[in-house]
Amino acid sequence: MNIVKKIGIGLLSGLIGGLVWGIGARIAMRIVALAAHKPTEFSIEGTLGILMMGAIFGLPLGLAVAGTRRFLPGSRLRSGLLYGLLMLLLLGWPIYSGFIMEESGLGVRALAVGMFGALFVGFGIVVTLAYSWLDRRLEMRYSGAQGKALTLQ
Question: Which of 73, 77, 98, 130 has the greatest count of CB atoms below 10 A from its CB?
């Protein structure tokens, strides 16, 4: 596969995964705030900021999928689960040792850790599935375009 195509697919799949992560993070924040009996004053600007942050952080992580995809064993779903667990271990720790542990009750902490942990795993699955889907779609279009060009000549 062409390296430019790999980079493009990685960036786009990371963007998709980052936006999905941002939506999930906003929902998780709302649920944790309600469980902690804290005011839920969420603004459109804040939501857009979280989506932007998810998209920005998703870009390099999508590139990482492009570079490590062949080393992730198993099916697309299994490799996504493995990648998500790896992201949870590498990137989730600062979240768990930071603001989540400052929440008031043990139940709220457990809820927050579970929800945000699931977001990392879900991110890995979304990015690897998006990468595989985009790769197949572009391959079909590219081979179809080549076939048409060959038949016209």
Answer: 130
Taking phi over 0 as left and psi of -120 to 50 as alpha, with beta for the rest, 37 belongs to: left
pLDDT (tens digit, 9 = 90+) per residue, 13-26? 999 999 999 999 99
For 31-87, write each residue's pLDDT tens digit: 888 888 888 778 899 899 999 999 999 999 999 988 888 887 778 888 889 989 988
**What residues have CB less than 8 Å from 49, skipping those under 6 apart?**
none
CA distance 47 to 40: 12
Q: 2 is written with which tokens?
A: 């062409």
Residue 103: half-sphere exposure toward Cβ, Cα within 13 Å: 22
The structural domains of the chain, with segments of one domain joined by +, span 3-152
